[in-house]
Write the structure tokens for this entry.
Amino acid sequence: MLTKLFSSKLMEPKLKEAKFSLFLLNRNKLTKISLIIVLLLILIAVISPWIAPYPGHTDLEVNPQDKLLPPSSQYFFGTDELGRDIFSRVIFGTRISLNTALVAVILSLIIGIPLGAVAGTIGGKIDELIMRITDIFLSFPPLLLAIAIAAVLGPSLQNAMIAIAISWWPWYTRLVRGQAISLKERQFVKAAEAIGTSQNKIIFKHIIPNCISPVIVQASMDMGGVILTISSLSFLGLGAQAPTPEWGLMISTSRNFFLNAWWYSIFPGIAIFITVLAFNLLGDGLREILDPKTRKN
Amino acid sequence: MTKKYFEVNNLKVNYNTFEGTKIVLDIDHIGIEKGEAYGLVGESGAGKTVLALTILRLLSVPPGEIVSGEILIDGENLLEKTESQMREIRGRKIAMIFQDPMSSLNPVFTVGYQMLQVIKINQKATEKEAVKIAVEMIERVKLPDAENIMSKYPHELSGGQRQRVIIAMALSCGAQFIIADEPTRNLDVTIQAGILKLLKELQEQFNVTVLFIANNLGLVSAVCDEMGILYNGRIIERGFINKVMTNPQHDYTKTLLSAVTQSQNEKKKDKSSNSNDEILKVSQLKKYFPVKKGFLDKESLFVKAVDGVDFGINKGEVFGVVGESGCGKSTLVNTILFLHEPTEGKVIFDGKDIYSLKKNHLRKARKDIQIVFQDPFWSLNPRWLVKDIIGEPLQVHENLSAEAYVDRVGALLEMVGLPKEGAFKYPHEFSGGQRQRIAIARALSVEPKLVVLDEPTSSIDVLSQAQILDLLYELKEKMGLTYILISHDLSVVHYMSDKIIVMYLGKIVEYGKAEEVFKDPLHPYTVALFNAIPDLNTQSVKELATLKGNVPSAINLPQGCRFHPRCDKATERCKSIEPEALYVDGRIVACHLFSK
């Protein structure tokens, strides 16, 4: 009975918040559109094996007699030099890009948020240590780091993911640290301190939940950036390897056929463009919803 | 009916929010004669600021929407003006003085530059003429050394000086109508008195019309001729000050008045409940904050926030701490609670020396000392449900089953007069007074012995203020609590305390029984402080005391008595020798006037 009481009552304020977010979302058309696109992309990523007309073409299957055909009713986006359906490959690419980007961003969040919160809340020598390490990592360009990692571990999508996570977490640490420094002067944190709450609890229960909004905004914007970086790495041959249907890799291969098969590079390019733009717009919109100060009336 | 200088007729303003349309203003009539001061009193959320913004047409639309009505100034309807016409009127005809003077000055330009810009644009004056006007205006608002003031950046000026600069800017454009939106809210009482006097003078000498918006009846009664009481967007009572004060018609006005008069009167104290057990003893407590002068400067300076404070509190007492901002009240309390590392001194609480306790013992001791903070908007974690906020101390100090926990939280909520169901809401769904009740419930959840009340009522409305004070008193009696009450609001301290200390720049200047100190303050600072606050009996601002100058910086303290540069009675001796704490009639006063 107690649990019942809890769940119904607990849901009430959450529902109200959700309704308010929906209201704000409804006011901002661009955010709404970007959210729909992102949801659509996620849906495509999930059901890609069922909607791709030639799922085999995303793997080892080749079809040389149909190579480099222009878009038609049989192959919506045309075919590549091995006669594989580009439409199927672009759809599968959604899954790969979103998957890797999400893992890379979540990895950096897991490293970045606690470090930033600890640095900002405790301060002093620990802050100094964490922030200098952060600075060191920030001074590596992600591409260079990825090349180094690929050189050591060998080029693969997974290693590209790790390289991105390593070069991305410091941004979150900085962001969270700044938030934590201002939050720890707030009275509710002082109140918790006066009550006798332990420092760990203050960091994880008071500081982190209150600095999560800007992090979510930053993370959703970064999704676009990470997708772009993964594609660049694959383009350079440091990320996904053939025959993986990765957008950047597809564009890279398509360069050889650029002059007589425009569809080969255009469609994966459009896919990258739409995905990155949608995530950036979503990030902007989320900021408006989560941070009342930037709200336009 | 003849037209007055300024009139608002049938003004209706709506707010469109996601929960639907809300009527925020529905004013049938406000009329102000030229050169009069009109006071508008209301609680927060009554629509005071919305009205001010609507008059200046600065209301953001949407979510606001002006449905109907007219705002006439000199017979012209402001609501029919175009945006470019309004720009002419703002500043030149109507000026607004905001609550926070810092936000209306640009921090990257000097005050003088900003004034000259405004004058040059509005009066089409040359540089030389503009400088002349600016100096004249700064002198008119009684700021000494106009040229020096003009060369300063806003952050170099004190709050009161900034507010004066804003008024000077308003006057320099020839504004005939000033809207003052709680202009003294963030200022100290002695500074507040000065600003009020200035506004009154301007109104009388230069025939400026003033719309004075406040949440405090005392302020309005001191400054204004006529007043209106705003409640939920409607004017529910209006008339001459005396008439409204002595013969209120509306029930709301009556409760408002009784809330004020009640806190002005001393509470019927039950002295017998005080025992002689000393629960807290503070001796020679000092807290200095180091400030580095420059990067290479080895020699660091100190802000002496608390500088040698001694006192003791008996069980069951209410101990008041009074002083203006920057006097070290909050630092004192934070140091006692060991939220700051003390520089020197000893605090004995319940027989234990707080500063020598080990970390885990300290956490246990903290169970017995709880604190209620000033601002209930910041002291509650906005992302937690009320049940978790109130239960936080329980989680730290007690092991309760889930069921017992919910029961305790419910009981605590009922104890502070909130419904049990509130446990499952977020803090932002409550009003300021209710949030303060939640903060009180949190502090009392682990049955502490000593509760520190850090300005418990300063950011909530008058009506809820009285209720909160009564609640606190009732709980004290019921639970046998001891309070330390910090406030710059003397009526609150007067109403609650048994003993008080008055602090000035980190030192105690007067320490004694509350009734005696209030009846007959001895130290010149205490006298000034007490006389600076307008109450309902204040007929005119001229009765108010003002202190000259500003509070000196706590880094470069004046030689001798810290109060001497602002003291009327200062002698040569005060300038060189720091006064000792003297016992006078069972009180402690730190002033040379009382030494033999």
